[in-house]
Amino acid sequence: MTHTPLKALVTGALGFIGTPLCRRLLERGDTVTMLDLPPKAPSDLIGHSSASYHSLDLTRESDWERVIRGHDVVFHLAANTENRPGMAGRLADYEHTVGATVRLLYALGDKEPTTFVLTSSQLVYGGRAGRAREADPVHPQTTFAAGKVAAEAFLCAYANATHISAVACRLANVIGPGIRRGVVADLVHRLREDPDKLQVLGNGQQRRSYVHVDDCVAALLVAAATAQPGFGILNVSNTDTLTAAEVASVVAAASPGLAPAIEYSGGSAWQGDATALHPDASKLAALGWKPQHTSREAVSSTAQSLFGGSTVQGATT
């Protein structure tokens, strides 16, 4: 099926999910306006003939009309990405998740775009929600989750007022090459520090779904292509799950020449940690999305990419 090129606006464009999303949009022939803070490393996307990059802080009031108007679709990824309490600052969720969303919606006005996709989180359901469905009540247990709920609510109000098509994608654990935080990155970092021992926070029984970043990008594109007038919600979760103990075993197996002893700190990993959460993504699957990587494959390939195929200090090959 022939794709009609779109004009896309992406916030958080140079981040972990934003970078492959922008790359995919450009590959299929779209024109992309990228909004983000100054990059921490060089990006091949900056300077692309069909892309324009703008360094904008969405938490600050500014005249954005010249940059954000005139697009067919907005992918709003910019937000606080640290879900552990106290790690990102007391006001991070309020300022970077809620405030940035409200300011962006206000700046867009009531004419454009026709489609708006927001990245939300599975954590809005609470950490023990099991096979949560989109219609289930939310039960945020951290400020991170509360910020996502509030951002969704403002987008819902905006969609109702403007009659655009808006969808919030509640993401499970998204991982892949280049990820810098989260359980897989943390475990790889610990093995680099101590190749003989791998400590897992909690009791190892926390169960979650893991989505490869490429599958996440595919889900966002499906969400945009199938969004209906008004506000909708889609879970983005894999078909399977892994316990934290299984994740540790997969990471250890992916390490170059290591056979670490796996230990557990016991109890909960941290307050508000998800212990039994596998959102039901059948609604998204019915729209044509199918993950190309299982949770185990996503964890393994992520760990291998983070190790870089190199020998960890202290390991034998």
UniProtKB/TrEMBL annotation:
Task: Specify the signal sequence span.
Answer: none
Write down the Gene3D superfamilies for this protein, in alphabetical order.
Answer: NAD(P)-binding Rossmann-like Domain
Task: Please give the InterPro entries that the UniProt record associates with this protein.
Answer: Epimerase_deHydtase, Lipid_A_modif_metabolic_enz, NAD(P)-bd_dom_sf
Where in this chain does the record put each NAD-dependent epimerase/dehydratase domain?
Answer: 8-235
Name this polypeptide is given: NAD-dependent epimerase/dehydratase family protein
Origin species, per record, is: Streptomyces asiaticus subsp. ignotus
